[in-house]
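Quick one: structure for this chain?
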Amino acid sequence: MIEQFDAIVVGAGMSGNAAAYTLASQGLK
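Got it. Here's what it folds into:
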């Protein structure tokens, strides 16, 4: 099974969490 993503966030620090939150709130996977 192949999964497709709109973005990849590398890192889980403050910047990574902020980026992931922003992307997810815009509906990106």
